[in-house]
Amino acid sequence: MTPLVSLEFMGDTSGVTPLLQLSNLLVRREKQTVLHIESLFVESGDVLAIVGPNGAGKSTLFLVLARLLKADHGQVLFHGRPAESFHDLEYRRQIALVLQESLLMDMSVYENAAMGLRFRNKSGDEIHERVNHWLERLGIVHLSGRPARKLSGGEAQRVSLARAFVLQPDLLLLDEPFTSLDSPTRARLLEDLKSVLIETKMTTIFITHDLQETLKLATRMAVILDGRIEQSGVPQNVFDKPMNDRVARFLGR
Amino acid sequence: MIFNLELSSITLLSLRVSGIATAISLLIGLPSGTLLALAKFPGRSFLLSLINTGMALPPVVVGLAVAMILWRSGPLGDLQLIYTPAAIVIAQTVIAAPVVTGLTTAALQQLNPRLQLQLYGLGASRVQMILSLWREARLPLLAAVMAGFGSVISEVGASMMVGGNIRGQTRVLTTAIVLETSKGEFEQAIALSVLLLLITFLINWALTWIQQRGKE
């Protein structure tokens, strides 16, 4: 195993193995470097917001984290083990993905929420119990039998979240999950998601360009500009003390 | 006057031959259409244009090509398949397979490309991902089957050339219609045509019913 490079970039790792560590991660597209992460780690229970303007490399990072895109260089440690030592499927079955569009399948709400569990060949009883629990928790249990295509945007995104939470993943990845919602719907969903994240202590990385969301949900944030992490830390600290002009400008300070 | 017995055996042969050809086309077309829709490889767009051309292959041309291969002097002549129902199945498969392949590709390309990512992100294996996409595109896929069957149950050129329209052996509805017309037996020809229309209508009606039920 290659020795770890400096990890002091985002806080203190002493004693505990972070859930996820990235070092010297490089993604190139047509000979241009689109992402270069020197160091980033996520500890269990963290809610890390990756914040940046459009085209900054957030989505590329997201795809790498979800193992849907291979980095050209660098190391990813998951549970302290090199990510390559996990089979693709083994890795992906420890994470869950929620994307900007809810991307529900043309079947009932219940069946949508049960999908990931069915992929894992879980028993009917276990599926029933977990799906109902999460539909209830996210306030959509009354929609259980409804076809997914008859849902409103907010309801659909709740199903998408339920579909991820039922998997009890080690790492939850959210890619701008609220962007396409109107603001009252978004505010309610944000509130509910916050309470679920606090309650479950689920390790979460979410991509956003919305600073309000970041302040509301995140325990830590990383500002990514032009493919590099410019600053990271506790959100309030980053907001209060932007490291340079570029970060300050992005934060509107 | 064609006896009822003969009429029913012609009808059954038509259904059997075109049904088997459609089934084989599905076995070929579903995986290859999926590959063309999802995989990126060199020569893919060339293959796609080939398939699209294949969707409009004139049955007579297919009949000629298959006949040349199956003739006694042809490369597969030893199999002695020419003028048998198997020869018609082969020719009809050549006609229907590109139709099913092309429409499968189109059906899967209509889906949101990010759906694949989402399915992987929920822990689907490659096979589970593909099965889920098929499930999601089940209605257009059903349309692909309908179009495949429709293209072969109604073709006459290939069946005539490789089957030979032999009474009691390779005579199908369309070749029987041609024969009756050439004999001046218009009543027979019209009766057979109505029967052919009825069969295609019934089958398409059943498939459409399944489609609509899926939509509710």
Secondary-structure map:
The complex is a heterodimer of chains A (253) and B (216).
Chain A: E1 20-29, E2 32-42, E3 47-51, H1 58-65, E4 73-78, E5 81-82, H2 88-92, E6 95-98, H3 109-119, H4 124-137, H5 153-165, E7 171-175, H6 183-200, E8 204-208, H7 211-217, E9 220-225, E10 228-233, H8 235-240, H9 245-251
Parallel strand pairs in A: 3-8, 3-9, 6-7, 7-8
Antiparallel strand pairs in A: 1-2, 1-4, 4-5, 9-10
Helix pairs in contact in A: 3-4, 3-5
Chain B: H1 4-38, H2 44-54, H3 59-70, H4 85-109, H5 114-121, H6 126-136, H7 138-153, H8 157-163, H9 173-182, H10 186-215
Helix pairs in contact in B: 1-4, 1-7, 2-4, 3-4, 3-8, 4-7, 4-8, 5-6, 7-10, 9-10
Uncertain segments of chain B: none
- Rg of chain A, Cα atoms, Å: 18 Å
Shape of chain B: globular
Give the largest chain-chain interface (CB within 8 Å). A-B, 23 and 15 residues
* Percent strand of chain A: 15-25%
Kindly report the oligomeric state of this protein.
Answer: heterodimer
Strand content of chain B: under 5%
Residue windows where pLDDT falls under 50 for at least 5 positions of chain A: 1-13
Description:
The complex is a heterodimer of chains A (253) and B (216). Chain A is 35% helix and 24% strand. Chain A contains 9 helices and 10 strands. In chain A, the strands form 2 sheets. Chain A has a 6-stranded mixed beta sheet, with helices on both faces. A 4-stranded antiparallel beta sheet of chain A has the order 2-1-4-5, with no helix packed on it. In chain A, strand 9 and strand 10 form a beta hairpin. The longest helix of chain A is centred in the last third of the chain and has 18 residues. The termini of chain A are far apart. Chain B has 216 residues and is mostly helical. Chain B has a single domain, classed as Orthogonal Bundle (MetI-like fold), CATH 1.10.3720. In chain B, helix 3 runs parallel beside helix 8, helix 5 packs across helix 6 and helix 7 runs antiparallel to helix 10. The longest helix of chain B is centred in the first third of the chain and has 35 residues. Chain B is globular. Chains A and B meet through strand 6 and helix 3 of A and helix 5 and helix 6 of B.
